[in-house]
Amino acid sequence: MNRLQTPDYAVFLIYFLIVALYGWWVYQRKKTAIASSKDYFLAEGSLTWWAIGSSLIASNISAEQFIGMSGSGFQMGLAISSYEFMAALTLVIVAVFFIPVYLKNKIFTMPQFLHQRYNGTVAMIMAIFWLLLYIVVNLMSILYLGALAISGISGFSVVLCIILLAIFSIIIALGGMKVIGYTDVIQVFFLILGGLVASYIALNLVSEKSGTTGVFNGLKLLAANADDHFHMIFHKDNKNYMDLPGLSVLIGGLWITNLNYWGCNQYITQRALGADLKTARGGLLFAAFLKILMPVIVVIPGIAAYVLYQKGMFHTEMLTSTGATDVNKAYPAILNLLPVGMKGVAFAALTAAIVASLAGKVNSIATIFTLDIYKKVIKPDASETNLVNLGKIAVV
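The structure corresponding to this sequence follows.
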């Protein structure tokens, strides 16, 4: 992607200031209320349904999903959206069946639920397992891959991007779940705005390449020029069948992974555990709606890049050092088409996705360590103030 120019950095600076100042305002407004671990880690009763829903999506989407899913759209088409549509259905199931059980048992963490259901040994094993998974796999991959994406756009070194992303995320996470939840609303706004702008530019360019204009004409041209990219279920003779094996993946393994991720994942369920049932369900259903929107802002640009590639564009931008076509460069190639200023919006959208995921993950790590390990094993008589302070230390 071409380097950002001064107006792009100005747009990004505005995004940074909005998030930072709003987060500080939320923190100061709720500062006197942060006196308990439940309030700090779960934002007890403070998050609205739209904040919960936005936070769920902000925590779920990161830079690698923008780039990777758009690349899958380039390669296999709309079928990759089955992950998003299935996630939306799963969120409805979690809202109806899972969340009432969690709220009835008044749990803070998923290991705590396992302790009530089984015993302390099972809970401790899972607490340690989730900590290792979150720190070694999730946190590191989000930070490194996100830094790679930001480095490619901004021109900054990967190490500097890692440091800046980490600092930005820690600042937000230190404010507790209230600050994370409400700043995630802004993150999702920039995420969706940047995605919609990229989709608009891509579809309009498809139209222009065929002598017309307009987004709807672009969609018609996508269907006409890439009809094989609009199959939701692959047959066995499809070259992408092994990646998404037809109905078997929809009625089989995909349900298991989705129920585990959306219904049993501390990183996700934590957003709803501090709310009442009506608010929590509203947040989950709002997240389901936003999930349905994701293919429009992520997959469609990938399909548009495929059509434009067939018309002779992006052949240089998507080449690897070996001369092969890298489908994961489809989204950056689309972003390269954005006018000055709009690239700053797209840059802010990618950064928002990364920072929201990092801040949420860090908060979940601190929650599990503080409540499931420190309070249970190291200092069972720890005061609420001590738990909150330790949670902040764990964030850093």
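Residues 42-395 form a domain with the Sodium/glucose cotransporter fold (CATH 1.20.1730.10).
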